[in-house]
Amino acid sequence: MASLEGPIRPGATQPMGPEVEDRDGPRDECGVFGIFAPGHEVSRLSYFALYALQHRGQESAGIAAADRGGHIITRRELGLVNQVFSENDLSTLAGELAIGHVRYSTTGSNAWENSQPVQRSVGTRGSQREVALAHNGNLINAVELHNELLAQGVTFSSTSDSEIIAALIATHPAERVEDAIAEVLPRLKGAFSTVVMTKDRVVAFRDPHGLRPLALGALPPSEPTHPGEPAGVTPMPPADTPTPPAGDPDGRVSEGTDRPEDRTVRYCVASESCAFDIIGAKYLRDVQPGEVVTLSEEGCSSKQVVQGARKAFCVFEYIYFARPDSRMNDQVLQVARGRMGELLWREAPVEADLVIAVPDSGNPAARGLARAAGLPQDDGFVKNRYVARTFIQPGQELRKHGLRLKFNPLPEVIAGKRLVVVDDSIVRGNTTRQIVQMLRDSGAAEVHMRISAPPIKHPCHYGIDMSTREEMIAHNRTTAEVAAELGCDSLHYLSLAGVYEAVRGTRATHCDACFTGEYPLAGSDGAAGKYSLEEDKVPTGPSLPLVRA
Ligand code: SF4
Predict the structure, then answer these.
(1) Is the distance from CB of 317 to CB of 323 less than 8 angstroms?
(2) Does the pLDDT at position 186 exceed 80?
(3) DSSP assignment of 320-363, as one string?
(4) How far apart are CA 63 and CA 98, in angstroms?
(5) Pocket of ligand 1, beta carbon within 6 A
(6) How many other CB atoms are there within 10 angstroms of residue 123's CB atom?
(7) Does 30 participate in catalysis according to the annotation?
(8) Which segments of 80-145 are extended strands (E)?
(9) Is the full-model pTM beyond 0.90?
(10) Residue 148's pLDDT band (boundaries 50, 70, 90)?
(11) How many other C-beta atoms are found inside a 10 Å radius of the C-beta of residue 230?
(12) Cis peptide bond prior to 277, omega within 30° of 0
């Protein structure tokens, strides 16, 4: 969990205790949401959508909302979604359209400044229009764009690459925000699944490679026409459809209201489809790489701004980042992760008595492996589900128990058994080493680690904090050497071919650079890193580090 060192703004809730690491895995994800829905409580829907996306970012949360023609109001703060917003906040954020963001990044004292949505108002800092923006990803040409804007006299209130995108859109002279975005999008390099709102519309767009996910959903009218019949929605036409039908395509009318806005299908976008489930929306399809989708009173329209770029969807989303109940590229991730477990067994069977998962991220693959092996599966650990929310530091006496604050092993299940232990990934190896030791201390006869991802050896330049190469346990080590470091009897990582077989995809349309070192975007190796705007690199820029969404 990120250490939050800076001053907490008035009204903020002190974040969770920083000493208890949630996991030794990749970090620095974000989640975004956007909705245009007159007749609905958009801020409340945004709150619950962000609540479903909380796994993508736990450092800060924010919602921006507006009435058509009114002002955009933004509330953003450090902390979890349920710590940041009160009933009173949601009432203040009343409106017809909204966007939201959850963020996960260690940034020190400027953490609040880099929370989102970022907002730029008409006439300030060179802006032509008022926009709020929420972004998931990382621009690899952020320094270049930042310098260009500074030279034009555009000023910034944060050091986030998300504010660079907001500034490019807000200062663009095009009359319609969609047109401004269509011109800005091809200039951005890197990963960006983004939602932007003005006072009367929400516009979502995704980078031409589709590195980070973004899904489109529809919110049906609140009541069905005929009792007992669910309110339905008409599927969105495919990408690049100029003007899909507005309003309720089925002509259905809600009972008990004459307001036309209550009888209309509304649209929303989210990083993951699990955000739609919680608010009663229906997943329609993924926003296409290079596509701009506009949600407004006219319904939902789409324009394919960049065509034909090499697709590079992050393969780690299937393995770990996304929730198992989310759908991506027509895959329900729980099922894909189960297949990863089956393939792990096919690639590396072993004489064993019991399969256990490292909870919770190893659960689906452990089930798949146990199914394929015909071995019993049990809970070898009990997980404290609320450990990430502790406010009290463990202190010296408790710290020696290490990971027990999070996982407590069950000796009655483990003792004397030859165990197959399944987890989704290993980055630095600190957690895995402690897990192996805890299992041995609990009497395990053998510990065979099975990992449903290949060895992580390279950093991510597209929005994920993977540690440095030198910190990665698989860097410059063979699998046998890693196994010796971890103290396990055997270790097998799922092959890259196994990953693609499990997700029913190919390397040609995905990014797997953290495993292979083959970055799909030109210029990634020299990419703007997390601290790329440090003073010595950019004399005219701010001295604060550049952070990513
Ligand atoms: Fe995903 Fe790894 Fe590519 Fe980053 S480098 S986008 S984590 S596959």
Answers:
(1) no
(2) yes
(3) IIS-TT-EETTEEHHHHHHHHHHHHHHHS----SEEEE-TTTTH
(4) 7
(5) 211, 314-316, 460, 462, 464, 511-514
(6) 10
(7) yes
(8) 97-103, 118-120, 131-139
(9) no
(10) very high
(11) 8
(12) no
